[in-house]
Amino acid sequence: MNIILFGPPGAGKGTQATRLVEQFGFEHLSSGDVLRAERAAGTKLGQDVTAYMDAGQLVPDELVIEVILGRVLNSEAEAGVLLDGFPRTLPQAAQLDEALEKADSRVDLVLSIQVPDELIVERITGRRMSPSTGKIYHVKYLPPQREGVCDETGEPLVQRPDDTEEVVKQRLNAYHEQTEPLEDYYRSRGVLVEVEGTQDIEQIADRIGQIVRDRRPK
Ligand code: AMP
């Protein structure tokens, strides 16, 4: 079963992805994490995407499609893949469909997490991340046991450079202009389910878990 976690930056996609992986064994593929790893490794791709990411703009389709589709098609997870942050444009969605179809597969479910813009800035500017695992915390809503330190690895948590208020506003613009139209694309294919994303993390996780169980092939 292949799932897309869809929603604006700060909707809680990464947090919910962690829960879904624990519960169902999906392979989590976050395009943002993949691009950040390329940057950290200093690859050509990593260098090419840096300026876009730091400005809160989408990176060009041709830079992201190949690397993500490669990972989707090579996944060996029996449960399926859980895409987070991809696709973000109509060409990305179309190419994903085409690649999956060739592999006799499909997008089975798109979980669209709904959060109004007003809440996004507070959520994102308080967000902290474990540098090696990408695990997400929030200073107020999901604090680590020891302030500023990852529960799992003991590393100091970091703030993503694009999680500042100024860049968040640009990322929200990119979301509304380029990514939101994908909701209609998937709705018309009958795979979109909207999820209220303003409740607390556990309530959202319960709801999402229930939707996945209902839709999972028996
Ligand atoms: P994220 O971690 O999903 O918020 O992604 C961080 C940044 O990576 C975005 O602001 C974009 O610059 C870039 N990015 C991630 N995924 C994509 C994508 N599917 N298409 C274009 N740019 C992306």
> What would you report as the Rg, rounded to the nearest angstrom?
17 Å
The CATH superfamily title: P-loop containing nucleotide triphosphate hydrolases
Task: Write down how many β-strands occur, each being a DSSP E stretch of 2 or more residues.
Answer: 7
Bound compounds, each kind once, are:
adenosine monophosphate
The neighbouring-strand order within the major sheet is 2-3-1-4-7
Largest sheet entry: 5 strands, parallel
CATH class, please? Answer: Alpha Beta
Instruction: Tell me the span between the first and last alpha carbons.
Output: 11 Å
The low-confidence parts are none
Mean pLDDT: 95
Shape: globular
> Roughly what percent helix?
40-55%
Strand content: 5-15%
Counted up, domains total 1
Q: What is the helix tally?
A: 9
Class by alpha and beta content? alpha/beta
CATH second-level architecture = 3-Layer(aba) Sandwich
**CATH topology (fold) name:** Rossmann fold
Order of helices and strands: EHEHHHEHEHEEHHEH
